[in-house]
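call fold(seq) -> tokens
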Amino acid sequence: MIEKMILGGYHTPELVDALNTNESTKKLVTEMCFKFDLKVYRRATDESQTFHLCHSNGFSVCKVWTEIETEPYTNATKTIYYYRSPYYRKDRGRSNADKETFFSAKIASLMTTLKRGKIIPNMDAVMRRQAHEWKRGISYLRDSHGVDNKERVLSPQQVHELLKFAIGGNTNLDNFDICKNTLDKYNEADKILDIKNKDTERFFDNEFYCVGADMFNDLIVGSVKRVKPSEPTPEKYIWQVVKPFERVKEFDHDKYKDLSPILVMNKVAHEGKNFYGNYIPQTDGYDNSLDVINISDYVSDFNITWLLTPCSQS
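ret:
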């Protein structure tokens, strides 16, 4: 029973013992896993009765725990069951933690609240949250090619003189030079925009790796590509998973032979930076020499810092 609840690769005697230590917590975890198809991947701390749960692809969904409370007058004790996740926030609460937390003295009541309120995010919802971070990578790639916006380079007086020149009211040939220089700048901006669009399509419309790391130094590895949705959506593009994501404690160099040297060279390139999961630097930007985009974030149990790089097309 317990083995089925634990994410592949994360089964340890210590985790099993921790789940078996407290019957109430074990019951809560069991209900969460089997009612919402979640997996246990970690105990918060060695002494904690808080457990982190994720989808089968390794993306963190929530943490659950139990606490014992004592009635003020009778001194009778009761177990309180807790659920917390940033994917759903109540309208009212004293803090973000309070808004993200649901609890009940009855486990059945908590399960009903979570189910009726559709509080547990499905895999697509979790992916959309991470896709917001991947979109930042598009900006980093495009910014690396320079400025393409046609900023106003002429003063109002110059515009006035050029208008007179255009209709024959001014024969000053200096205006011709101003027109030519401005046109050259605009043409250059168009060239840069074209390069940006083509490079964005090259990187994101083909399969690329997404390698993330969280506060536990676990790695999330998979690949996606950007596609146009077949049905109308608020988004112009959606992210299609190519290689299913997985959570791993150690990077598998044999499994990802084309990705392995990129991670190693990227680590060397960012020597001195803070790394998560041994390979993901907490930094932002596009490295043209490696064709790598680094996307940093405040790293937590739910927030991930990412590295994006094209998959080998061979």
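The chain has nine helices and 13 strands.
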